[in-house]
Specification:
The protein is mainly β. It has one helix and eight strands, in the order E-E-E-E-E-E-E-E-H. Bound molecules: calcium ion (CA). Calcium ion (CA) binds next to loops. Keywords: Calcium, Metal-binding.
């Protein structure tokens, strides 16, 4: 009988974060037209892991984007930053929110509604993001398989 005494030959070496960015509601106005062009950046340890599509002229954007990436340590936070895309100027902040990954039970899909906050603390209500997150630990073997399938999915066409 196999006893898990923590010295298993296949310990978890990484974590896959699967995210389904669904939509947002009640976002703030950043353009003179009375709307905004929102997109979301997903940051882990100051590195942008994913940037969503920009939805033009919407304060209730529906992204419906699914993606995944690997992280080493789920005790770090995932930081989500919403911006208004501007063609001729610097993109404006539309609020930020944090996901405490360590609070999410592994393997389970969590539906999250995250209130956006103004980092400078001047705007009270900035709307919210709706997304689901699944954190799955991977062994070394699984990690290599994921990297390989990601590589062939993304870059396979370069070789065909
Ligand atoms: Ca804009």
């Amino acid at each position: 009988m196999h006893v898990d005494d923590g010295t298993d030959a296949n310990p978890y070496v990484t974590f896959r974060l699967k995210i389904h960015l669904k939509e947002a509601h009640g976002l703030v106005i950043r353009d003179a037209s009375g709307s905004s062009d929102p997109y979301v950046k997903f940051k882990y340890q100051d590195k942008t892991m994913y940037k969503s599509n920009t939805i033009y002229r919407s304060l209730n954007p529906n992204w419906d984007e699914e993606f995944a990436f690997l992280i080493d340590d789920p005790t770090y936070q995932l930081r989500l930053e919403v911006f208004d895309y501007d063609r001729f100027m610097m993109d404006d902040s539309m609020g930020i929110t944090i996901i405490e990954l360590v609070q999410l039970k592994l393997f389970e899909t969590h539906e999250l509604k995250l209130m956006l906050e103004d980092e400078n603390g001047t705007e009270e209500y900035m709307g919210y993001l709706h997304l689901s997150v699944t954190v799955t630990p991977l062994t070394e073997t699984q990690k290599n398989e994921v990297s390989y399938s990601f590589f062939t999915e993304r870059f396979g066409h370069f070789f065909s």
